[in-house]
Specification:
The complex is a heterodimer of chains A (346) and B (165). With 346 residues, chain A is mainly α. Chain A has one domain. Chain A contains 13 helices and four strands. The termini of chain A are far apart. With 165 residues, chain B is mostly helical. Chain B folds into two domains: 117 residues, Four Helix Bundle (Hemerythrin (Met), subunit A), CATH 1.20.120.1200; 44 residues. The relative contact order of chain B is 0.06. The chains are: A mainly alpha (346), B mainly alpha (165). At the A-B interface, helix 4, helix 5 and helix 6 of A face helix 2 and helix 3 of B.
Chain lengths: 346, 165
């Protein structure tokens, strides 16, 4: 099989997989919320309500597509697209397993192993805010503009600690390539801990996950769409599938962020203490690494849902204060400590 | 004919034109973003992926978002930037700057014959590690000078912003 065919198969596979996970996440979110709030949640469509996402999709697609009379039409259409596009593109550099050997040919389970993988994801994360800005501005009402305004301020504030956490991790691994980061986490650390990023960068991990919640606009940082203050924020005026694209983009963002967390801090596809490549065949090893990676991602996806229905929302000034006065100093301190350790150990 | 170059060059120039002719602030900012993305494509084409990513992250992702934040605070949708556009001194200054820039471009045209020279790239060109080596070995002083300059700007803006220190 030529290389371009393999590449196309990988792209189509990960595209479909991401879509399926996002669809299932809408179900997990609603059932999880119900579980935490001690009620039943959607349970009518299919077994355990599993067909609920399908019903939601049909509803969103068949609803009348309304554009407000005072809205700026082209920008209004562009908004959801600009939000979902970066979310989908991030998967080009994300690993989803180690490698699979088919007919003597080694295929890495990653669409493209570029030398600037982590930076590429950061760049896409910083572009994603345009979807919210365009949506908020073009809807032409006060609540939407306030939502867009909040999302810009939030992104600028939390991009800095996010970047500082990633910088410390990059210093530790010495590479921007996601695959090399994953490979570097094999074996044990200090003889008894798995050689995972979280044990070397505990502070960096906390910083990263707090900033990741902010990047994903999830509770406790969902100020741009705080329903008790500004109706639904930047997507107040959106309905039908345009709104669907916004919601869908959010779940794909969650998947991407969970995958980065797993790659940088939780050993990617490695199991602790066990080297799977020694006793599994070439094909089953590929599948096993994919499953291990996905299970770890699934845990963080669940954590996003868990936190959303457990923690109350911050006040706006608390969000800004936390970002600038707490996270950035901690990030700089973490960077300094990491640099000191690297210098001392070399 | 380098099709990729022409594509991104055309995109950059047309988006740049749109930036200065758009009446509403947001399309204006979005076309500026397109300029940055076109530049980033050009950098990628020149085998400088790190520069391309920095272009997107820093300019499109941080600076332009900051500009948009200020814009959304001060104006409302549909409001035209009349006061600035009708300001005659601004227009005269802009015309002078534009003339200077055109003249500079004209002088730059003299070097256009160098564009077609095929250069052989050294090994590992554009890789983050080679970029880092150059940055922290050969050009460290320039970098530090620039950072001091930024610090001065920071102190200055805080001094201007605070009424009492």
């Amino acid at each position: 099989m030529p290389d371009w065919k393999i590449a196309i198969i990988k792209v189509v596979f990960i595209w479909c997989w991401t879509l399926i996970v996002a669809v299932i996440m809408t179900w997990v979110e609603r059932r999880g919320a119900a579980m935490i709030q001690d009620r039943l949640g959607p349970n009518r469509a299919g077994p355990f309500g599993l067909l609920q996402p399908l019903a939601d999709g049909i509803k969103l697609f068949t609803k009348e597509d309304i554009v407000p009379a005072r809205a700026q039409k082209y920008l209004f259409t562009l908004g959801p697209v600009m939000f979902a596009l970066p979310a989908f593109s991030a998967y080009a550099v994300m690993p989803f397993g180690d490698k699979i050997t088919l007919g003597g040919k080694e295929i890495i389970l990653q669409i493209s192993d570029v030398s600037i993988g982590i930076l590429y994801v950061v760049a896409l994360g910083s572009i994603a805010v345009y979807g919210m800005i365009i949506g908020g501005w073009s809807s032409n009402n006060k609540f939407s503009i306030l939502g867009g305004l909040r999302s810009t301020a939030q992104l600028i504030s939390y991009e800095v600690p996010w970047g500082l956490a990633i910088l410390a991790a990059v210093m530790l691994y010495g590479t921007f390539s996601m695959r090399e980061v994953s490979l570097a986490q094999q074996g044990t650390f200090l003889g008894f801990l798995p050689n995972w990023g979280i044990f070397k960068q505990p502070l960096g991990f906390i910083l990263f996950i707090v900033a990741a919640y902010c990047e994903a606009n999830r509770v406790p940082f969902d100020l741009p769409e705080a329903e008790s203050e500004i109706v639904a924020g930047y997507h107040t005026a959106y309905g039908s599938m345009r709104l669907g694209l916004y919601l869908f983009g959010e779940y794909i963002n969650l998947y991407t962020l969970s995958a980065i967390i797993v790659t940088l801090y939780f050993g990617s596809w490695h199991l602790p203490y066990v080297d799977m490549s020694t006793f599994l065949g070439p094909i089953s090893y590929g599948i096993a690494t994919f499953l291990v990676f996905f299970l770890k991602v699934a845990f963080f996806l669940w954590l996003f849902v868990w936190v959303r229905w457990t923690v109350p929302r911050f006040r706006y000034d608390q969000v800004m204060g936390l970002g600038w006065k707490t996270l950035i100093p901690i990030g700089l301190f973490n960077l300094f400590i990491t640099a000191l350790f690297i210098q001392l150990s070399i | 004919m380098d099709l990729i170059f022409w594509f991104f060059a055309f995109m950059a120039v047309s988006a740049g034109l749109l930036t200065i002719t758009a009446k509403d602030p947001l399309p204006c900012a979005l076309s500026l973003m397109s300029v940055f993305i076109a530049f980033s494509g050009l950098y990628l084409h020149l085998h400088a992926p790190l520069m391309a990513i920095f272009q997107v992250t820093i300019y499109a992702g941080a600076i332009l978002v900051l500009v948009l934040f200020v814009m959304m605070l001060l104006t409302t949708p549909g409001e035209r930037l009349k006061s600035i556009q009708k300001n005659v001194p601004f227009r005269i200054m802009g015309a002078q700057l534009g003339l200077c820039l055109t003249a500079l471009l004209g002088f730059g045209m003299k070097g256009i014959s160098d564009l077609v020279v095929q250069a052989r790239l050294p090994d590992g060109f554009g890789h983050p590690s080679s970029f880092g080596t150059l940055f922290f070995k050969d050009y460290l002083l320039h970098f530090e000078v620039a950072s001091v300059l930024l610090l001065v700007a920071l102190v200055g803006s805080i001094y201007l912003g605070k009424k009492s220190l």
